Amino acid sequence: MTIHRPLRLAACAALGWLALAPPPALALPPNRSISLQGVAGAGPAAGQAGLALQAGAWLEGDLEATARAAIWSAARTGGRGAVLAVVGLRWSPGDGRWRPLVGVEGGLAWADEPRAAVAVRAGVERLLSRGWSVSASAGLAWAGRGVWPEGAVGLTCYF
């Protein structure tokens, strides 16, 4: 009976350590990414939801180059949608599961005619596993008609 008591204590200590130990750290994601995003805002297609595809590649340190194309179903455009095509830089410091995101983009927006476009956004990214993450961001965009708020939720694959 006395031999079982130390074994029981050791087993309880091991189970307690496993329950309280932090999860293993995730490795940094690979160099390139592609993200599918749901976008909403008051911009080229006011009040309409949009869909965006964003590609990215790490440049140096925490800095990433991005290219994003978005399309909205726009009312009063004769069945045409509004399109946004931008390139930019995104800064995402840290190597934990949660990372802040700050980005700036510039390019063109088309609803009725092409216009210059600029967007600034901030958000957060949650790394799910080595190759996947989810993100949410909010910011301001401009496309020749004034500034409007814009938000996005995305699923990203790193490869």
Short description:
The chain has one helix and eight strands, in the order αββββββββ.
Supply database-style keywords:
single chain; 159 residues; mainly beta; Porin; eight-stranded antiparallel barrel
Notes on the protein architecture:
With 159 residues, the protein is mainly beta. It has one domain: Beta Barrel (Porin). Helix content is 11%, strand content 60%. It has an 8-stranded antiparallel barrel. A hairpin with a 7-residue loop joins strand 1 and strand 2. The longest helix is centred in the N-terminal third of the chain and has 17 residues. The termini are far apart. The model has no long low-confidence stretch (mean pLDDT 81).
Helices, strands, pairings?
Blueprint: H1 4-20, E1 32-41, E2 49-60, E3 63-73, E4 81-91, E5 98-110, E6 114-129, E7 132-142, E8 147-158
Antiparallel strand pairs: 1-2, 1-8, 2-3, 3-4, 4-5, 5-6, 6-7, 7-8
What strand line-up does the widest sheet have? 1-2-3-4-5-6-7-8
Radius of gyration: 22 Å
Q: What is the CATH T-level topology?
A: Porin
Content-based structural category: mainly beta
Assigned CATH architecture: Beta Barrel
State the helical fraction.
10-25%
**Quaternary class:** single chain
The amount of beta strand, in percent, is over 45%
Number of strands: 8
